[in-house]
Amino acid sequence: MRHASWFLLLTLIGGSALGAEVEVISRPGDDKSTLETAAQVFPHPRQLHYQQLETIAFIHFGMNTFTGREWGDGSDDPALFNSTKLDANQWVSVLKQAGFKLLIFTAKHHDGFCLWPSDYTDYDIAASPWKEGKGDLLREVVDACNAQGMEIGLYLSPWDRHHPDFGSETYNEYYRNQLREILTNYGPFREVWFDGAGRTEPGPSGEVHQFDDEGFWRIIRELAPEAVLVGMGPDARWVGNEDGYARDSEWSVLPLTRDSVDSSLPPEELLLRHFEPKNRMDEDLGSLSALKGATALHWYPAEADVSIRPGWFYHPEEDSQIKSVAKLTDIYFGSVGRNAVLLLNIPPNKAGRITQADADTLLAWRQHLDEMFETNLVKDAAIRVGLEEVDPMILIDGNISTSIQAVNTLTFSFDTPVTLTNLLLQEAIEQGQHVAEWVLEAEAVGGWTEVVRGTTIGYKRLERFDAVTTSSLRLRVLKSRGAAWIGEVGFYTN
Ligand code: FUL
């Protein structure tokens, strides 16, 4: 029953049957064809890697740190940028201890001030007094990440309130040049974050800027092929709020387009040609009714972003408003636990350090999560799918690609009663996202009683509930798009 052998078998009998990150619907408008196609869409390896990071750190640092603003207008004097104890190694070391594996750094925010000495502008760190104009903060961050084994992501704000040509094609050329400059001289980058802000703001000429999105993505695919393009990019989407919470039903398979498509094109080409950058904020993005009318579907998971403080940049007056461990844990359940990646922002202060209070909170939060998920009670269960006994290791080995096909009820029996308060479920998403409804029940005097029920699972589903003590639990998949492959199950007490 090990998924691996099933996967191997399918691999042996032919590639295309396995699906891809983009799939064309053979009979658009037909429900059966739409759902069958949806079941075949699964992540590109770079998207799978990204989803498995679970939590990503975000650093907002720049001109706004010194002016106390959130959105600079691009007129601030570079002389304001100066930091006394700036230490990118401290950032990375705190974030690493807090369990992050990727850090996204704001090399340029909306104010246009560049934190590396750019060949394409004078409005950059070389014009500041920091290190007498010889500093390169992007280099320091990338070096610290590389030295400490942290992956690096790039935030290069498309909206630029300083550049005089914003609003015209000349600015696109500038942005393309800067992308090439950064991706050639720094890296390797694993994510590029395309902010949606400023897409309706007029530039100095009064024109709303028309971004060359496709041109930008193609440069990144060429120079940083492992990087996921997030936000206004086609590989992962902004969840739709800045609170860190995903939807209750968070599907990763979304309509790519309703236009006619050339099905002979490779998935990558279909994606770059047809993807439309826009905010996807509707509550329902992936049910059958949301997919209806699409001609092609793609793997487009959610990323939920939030700051540990009210602002994205550091402001001393917010020192007393650092989110608590309990709040961050709730956010974790509401993002990672709902099939999204959590992007958590931790802004360094003017001195160029993550404050002790932010660091302490982060470490306490991670420790709390580690303790919560330390002992998986499933290890002591006898597990059956229908009547067939299965090896519990398949469901607790931390590897979603060893999985069980939930053709039938999964039953977990214990020799002595267990008490649980938390549930973890994961689908083997390298095969796609299939489960649409499930229920966990416990055996009690008089029969089975419901513990918790939900809709989607996807990469991960986490639930908390009042303590239940029982010797037998069962998981039933009630609705699924084709076969439901369960990669991991966890029962925990805290
Ligand atoms: C938003 C920006 O306008 C904020 O300043 C911040 O960078 C946030 C992550 O994205 O769109």
Write up this protein.
This protein is α/β, with parallel strands linked by helices. 26% of the residues lie in helices and 26% in strands. The chain is built from 13 helices and 19 strands. It has an eight-stranded parallel sheet. Strands 12, 13, 14, 15, 16, 17, 18 and 19 form an eight-stranded antiparallel sheet that branches. Strands 1-9-8 form a three-stranded antiparallel sheet, with helices on both faces. Helix 7 (169-185) links the parallel strand 4 (151-156) and strand 5. The protein starts with a helix and ends with a strand. The model is unreliable at 1-17 (pLDDT under 50). Beta-L-fucopyranose binds next to loops. Residues 70-71, 195-197, 305, 312 line the site of beta-L-fucopyranose.
Oligomer: single chain
**CATH fold description of the largest domain:** TIM Barrel
Strand neighbour order, sheet with most strands: 6-5-4-3-2-11-10-7
Number of helical segments with 4 or more residues: 13
Search tags:
494 residues, alpha/beta, Jelly Rolls, eight-stranded parallel sheet, eight-stranded antiparallel sheet, disordered N terminus, binds beta-L-fucopyranose
Secondary structure: elements and pairs:
Layout: H1 3-12, E1 22-24, H2 31-40, H3 45-53, E2 55-59, H4 63-67, H5 88-97, E3 102-108, H6 137-148, E4 151-156, H7 169-185, E5 189-194, H8 213-223, E6 228-231, E7 237-238, E8 253-257, H9 267-274, H10 288-291, E9 296-299, E10 302-307, H11 325-334, E11 340-345, H12 356-372, E12 382-385, E13 388-390, H13 393-396, E14 404-405, E15 410-427, E16 435-444, E17 447-454, E18 461-480, E19 485-492
Parallel strand pairs: 2-3, 2-11, 3-4, 4-5, 5-6, 7-10, 10-11
Antiparallel strand pairs: 1-9, 8-9, 12-13, 12-15, 14-19, 15-18, 15-19, 16-17, 16-18
The protein binds beta-L-fucopyranose.
